[in-house]
């Protein structure tokens, strides 16, 4: 009976909504940043955040119990090393995925519709907000900006690993497809001075990437192409790089994107994905959580190695290798070679998404 009681307590802990939402409140109100800046009493924090002091005090009490903050005898608060990862200037960029004032806030709201998505097999985003996620981002520049910054912070976590754990020595031109603000392409150009790169993304996003690439260090070594990756891509690249792109899409659209890469690549070109891979022989909880995220928000999915191979075959690509990255441990390099004549004819999705 004691074991059963422990199971009940652990299940209650896991099912509690207090923890994820209290942490998000801390990030949205920038509490770790404010406390580290010297605003350590409840009253000061309430004044700076425009919140009710009593309600905020309750949140702080709970977060102290979690070890995010510590409280002194005089009632003031300090940020613990554990809580410091929530600061807006922390290198992990985790705050951008928790701040409710941007696109991440919309993502989080979709989890309240998980039961509906399990029943329908469709994303919860459109029923909740009236538009598919990509259309919503296109219509709201501020929302799109928060999404781009969120993805850029994630890219910064793995960019160095991509630059060092793939052999770029024989590559002359890399095309970063759906490359966002250009953080990954900039890292590649910085570490490999022989490389030339093309950043491909929607016009507004691609234009926002110019400040990242516009430096004397990269002069005459890059170009920016504002377009959808469902349209024909710039031709002749040695490597077509797609980081966290394919998992955003269902199979039909994913094949269309990969097919565009296969069509554009040079005869001995490669297509390189940075993506999660479902594997049964490791701790896959993070990947499983990301898979739910794709279901709820975009209608995409995380895939197994066999599923990546099948996508490649349908797109005129040959899966050559799946290589784990050292950081973060749940991302892989999925390497394809081009075998276009064996692929199926190109089919563009009906009314292709703006992305």
From TrEMBL:
- Residue ranges constituting the O-methyltransferase dimerisation domain according to the UniProt record: 17-86
Q: Which residues form the active site?
A: 247 (proton acceptor)
Q: Does the keyword S-adenosyl-L-methionine apply?
A: yes
- Top-level division of the source organism's lineage: Bacteria
Q: Which Pfam families match?
A: Dimerisation, Methyltransf_2
Which segments constitute the O-methyltransferase C-terminal domain?
Answer: 111-317
Spell out the InterPro entries in the cross-references. COMT-like (IPR016461), COMT_C (IPR001077), COMT_dimerisation (IPR012967), SAM-dependent_MTases_sf (IPR029063), WH-like_DNA-bd_sf (IPR036388), WH_DNA-bd_sf (IPR036390)
Query: Methyltransferase: present as a keyword of the record?
Result: yes
Q: Which UniProt keywords apply?
A: Methyltransferase, S-adenosyl-L-methionine, Transferase
Record-linked Gene3D superfamilies: 1.10.287.1350, Vaccinia Virus protein VP39, Winged helix-like DNA-binding domain superfamily/Winged helix DNA-binding domain
Single Gene Ontology MF annotation: protein dimerization activity
Q: Which GO terms describe its biological process?
A: methylation
The signal peptide, as residue positions, is none
Q: What is this protein called?
A: Carminomycin 4-O-methyltransferase
């Amino acid at each position: 009976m004691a074991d059963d009681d422990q199971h009940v307590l652990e299940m209650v802990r896991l099912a509690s909504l207090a923890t994820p939402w209290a942490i998000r409140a801390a990030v949205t109100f920038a509490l770790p940043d404010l406390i580290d800046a010297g605003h350590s009493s409840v009253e000061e924090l309430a004044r700076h955040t425009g919140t009710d002091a009593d309600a905020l005090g309750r949140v702080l009490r709970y977060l102290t119990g979690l070890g995010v903050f510590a409280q002194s005898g005089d009632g003031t608060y300090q940020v613990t090393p554990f809580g410091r990862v929530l600061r807006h200037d922390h290198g992990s960029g985790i705050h951008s995925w928790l701040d409710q004032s941007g696109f991440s806030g919309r993502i989080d709201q979709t989890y309240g519709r998980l039961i509906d998505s399990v029943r329908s097999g469709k994303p919860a985003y459109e029923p909740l907000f009236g538009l598919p996620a990509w259309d919503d981002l296109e219509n709201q520049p501020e929302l799109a900006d928060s999404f781009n910054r969120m993805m850029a912070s994630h890219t910064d976590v793995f960019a160095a690993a991509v630059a060092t754990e793939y052999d770029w020595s024989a590559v002359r031109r890399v095309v970063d497809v759906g490359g966002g603000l250009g953080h990954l392409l900039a890292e590649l150009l910085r570490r490999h001075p022989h490389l030339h790169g093309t950043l491909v993304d929607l016009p507004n996003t691609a234009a926002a990437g110019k400040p990242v690439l516009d430096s004397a260090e990269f002069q005459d070594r890059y170009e920016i192409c504002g377009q959808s990756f469902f349209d024909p891509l710039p031709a002749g690249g040695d490597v077509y790089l797609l980081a966290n792109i394919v998992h955003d899409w269902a199979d039909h659209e994913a094949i269309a994107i990969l097919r565009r890469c296969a069509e554009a690549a040079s005869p001995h070109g490669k297509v390189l994905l940075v993506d999660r891979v479902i594997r049964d022989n490791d701790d896959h909880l993070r990947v499983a959580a990301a898979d739910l995220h794709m279901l709820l928000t975009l209608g995409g999915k995380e895939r197994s190695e066999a599923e990546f191979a099948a996508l490649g075959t349908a797109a005129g690509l040959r899966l050559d290798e799946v290589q784990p990255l050292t950081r973060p441990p749940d991302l892989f390099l999925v390497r394809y070679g081009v075998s276009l004549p064996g692929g199926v004819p190109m089919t563009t999705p009906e009314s292709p998404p703006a992305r």
